[in-house]
Design a protein that fits this description.
The chain contains eight helices and seven strands, in the order H-H-H-H-E-H-E-E-H-E-E-H-H-E-E. With about 350 residues, the chain is of the alpha+beta class. The chain is elongated, with a radius of gyration of 38 Å.
Amino acid sequence: MTGRSPRSIALITALISSLVTTGVVWLSHVLFGYHTDIVELALVLALSFIASWLIFYKALQNFIYNKIKLIFRNMHSMKVDKRNFKLDMREDVLGNVNKEVVHWAEDRMAEIEDLREKESFRKEFVGNVAHELKTPIFSIQGYILTLLEGAMEDPEFNKKFLMKAAKSVERMTLIVEDLDTITQFESGNLKLDLQKIDILELCKEVIEIRDQEADSKSIEIEFNKQYDKPIYVLADSFRIGQVLTNLVTNSIKYGKEGGTTTIGFFDLEDQIMIEVEDDGPGITQEHLPRLFERFYRVDKSRSRHQGGTGLGLAICKHIIEAHKQSIDVQSEVGKGSVFSFTLQKAS
């Protein structure tokens, strides 16, 4: 029966069944002498055919629909959203199967494309890690080889090269520590110590620590207005200190000589928004979406020359998101950049 429709299969089955039924009636007439005329025999044949066709068609239809339901369940179990599916017997089931198969294929293609993007990101990330570690490793190797080739005997060169090697080791340590911090945040192993803190006082501490660095570029760090009262938020003091330190440090590094870094606080009902603004060269729009990615640098050569691991903003993003808040950046070329993040108010 391969290739036949359910209707034709039921038709053939009903015809055979009705002929068998009619044959039984006729045999009863022959063997037992029951009186049966042609009209009765035809009526029995017709009724038997109709009843058999309805029964077999319905049974076959239910059998096929149940198989299709199984296909639907298997397909939907593979989908992320796992939406409940309910078959409408009035619909074109085979047509729906075709649509679902198309949708399933489209979903798989989207997943494949997503995996390709992740693979590309992984390769880029591994390449960036290798590049960031390669520079200090080669420096250390060069200093040690120079010492082994005779500079060890000269006390002046000895100390100078060992200090440079130590600085390169320190840079490698910072990269590894930052990577470890990000990994702990992503795996959920790094827990926050949420407390009621005065974010205004924390900012003053950061400014005091970075004051000398700002003075070297004649950059003034100030608040957008006079704040006389504490501003309390629910946060991890150490981690938010990291965020503020990173943003203020960046504003000094990339701000213009003799410029200003401005810190402001804005009340958003249940939240406090903190802004760190500089009047530096700004960042083009094409770079903004990727600014919080690990190792992403707007100006690679300039950024590496100025130091840093390239992980600061990525860590900031993880810290703020761990607080269940958001961080953002707005910038305009020639006018500067504004980094802002929110924190939950504390009463």
